[in-house]
Design goal:
This protein has 348 residues and is α+β, with helices and mostly antiparallel strands. The protein folds into four domains: 104 residues, Hypothetical Oxidoreductase Yiak, Chain: A, domain 1 (Orthogonal Bundle); 161 residues, Ribosomal Protein S8, Chain: A, domain 1; 43 residues, Wheat Germ Agglutinin (Isolectin 2), domain 1; 29 residues, no CATH class. It is built from eleven helices and twelve strands. A seven-stranded mixed sheet has the order 2-3-4-11-5-6-7, sandwiched between helices. α1 runs antiparallel to α2. The longest helix has 19 residues. The chain is globular and about 55 Å long. The mean pLDDT is 96.
């Protein structure tokens, strides 16, 4: 049976766990904000369900508290930075702050982040750029423990989930926000399905023999199953490009079984300031004209609606802020146990 919890209370609980686990109060609050925000916008796979694994990685020294990025190379428009295995919510923020500042000064910035802890919901990073008035495009890979996806025509895990995200600012309105993956389903969503005791959608995963399945347990079996790329060979091709950009180019490495003991993300971020290309007013007007034109299409059903990328997340956020966040009992019990493991007791 699910439970519903207010986002503010959930934030307090999660922040308390990370503070007790060894993070500073500021970092603990930041991690909690990112995780709860993922639940608020409907990306439960990247929300508070991650609390237990994050704390276990911290205790094992696989992710480190309160790290600062180390700049390996920098010029006016490029920065290659090492996250030094800090929490992604911390080193990702630092990398984006650096990129946004460079783009504001020079019109464009490319930031190559390597050796970051789990970066969470990747849509948070183009949202941050859009709130600063910048366009951005982000490619992400996992060089080690997050090898989850079979190549097109194969059955064994060889690729990471390879998130790709992009954001376009809008004047006075929520941005256009794309947050997707080169594979059919996020591993976190398989974990959510497992916790809820439900099936995953068809054509998303295969078992260890390469047979299509909707059973999340088959994915976590021994030997394990694998996630499929989106759109067959097209998604596979996109994943390969993403691995190279986020892995080889950043210096963090592409999918590699030798790194399987630690989850480390690489992210290549391209950030653009539209005011260097044309006036802010002209850019904003063209975006709104284009959106109006796209949404003017007749809909398949009489009550249908044309949406922009990010619209669903924004509506979900409004409703969950108002009504609370639904958590299944398994996820909640895992949060309670994680809290106990760091000396916190959570009242029901």
């Amino acid at each position: 049976m699910d439970m519903t919890i207010a986002s503010a209370r959930l934030h307090t609980i999660i922040a308390g766990i990370f503070h007790a686990a060894g993070c500073s109060a500021a970092e603990a609050a930041r991690i909690a904000e990112h995780l709860v925000e993922a639940n608020l916008v409907g990306h439960d796979s990247h929300g508070v369900i991650r609390t237990g694994p994050y704390v276990r990685w911290l205790k094992a020294g696989q992710v480190l508290a309160d790290r600062r990025i180390r700049i390996a190379f920098e010029n006016e428009a490029i920065a290659v930075v090492d996250g030094q295995f800090g929490f992604g919510q911390t080193v990702g923020l630092q990398a984006m702050e650096l990129g946004i500042a460079k783009a504001a000064k020079h019109g464009v910035a490319v930031v190559a982040l390597r050796n970051a802890g789990h970066l969470g919901r990747i849509g948070a990073w183009p949202l941050m750029a859009a709130q600063a008035g910048k366009l951005s495009l982000h490619f992400v890979n996992t060089s080690g423990a997050g090898i989850l996806v079979a190549p097109f025509g194969g059955i064994n895990r060889r690729l990471s989930a390879n998130p790709i995200a992009a954001g376009i600012p809008r004047a006075g309105r929520p941005p256009i926000l794309l947050d997707m993956s080169a594979c059919t389903i996020a591993e976190g969503k398989i974990k959510v399905a497992l916790n809820r005791g439900v099936s995953v959608p068809e054509n998303c995963i295969i078992d260890s023999a390469g047979r299509p399945t909707t059973d999340p347990q088959a994915f976590y079996a021994n030997p394990p199953g694998a996630i499929l790329p989106i759109a067959g060979h097209k998604g596979y091709g996109l994943a390969v490009m993403c691995e190279v950009l986020a892995g080889a180019l950043t210096g963090g490495g592409c999918s590699n079984p030798e790194n399987a003991g630690r989850l480390a993300n690489g992210m290549l971020s391209i950030i653009l300031d539209p005011s260097f290309f044309q006036s802010d007013a002209a850019f904003a007007a063209e975006i709104e004209r284009f959106i109006e034109w796209v949404k003017s299409s007749e809909t398949v059903s009489a009550d249908g609606e044309i949406l922009m990328p990010g619209d669903i997340e924004e509506r979900t956020r409004v409703s969950r802020l108002r009504d609370g966040i639904d958590l299944d009992t398994t996820t909640w019990s895992q949060i309670v146990e994680t809290a106990k493991s760091v000396g916190n007791d959570i009242e029901a």
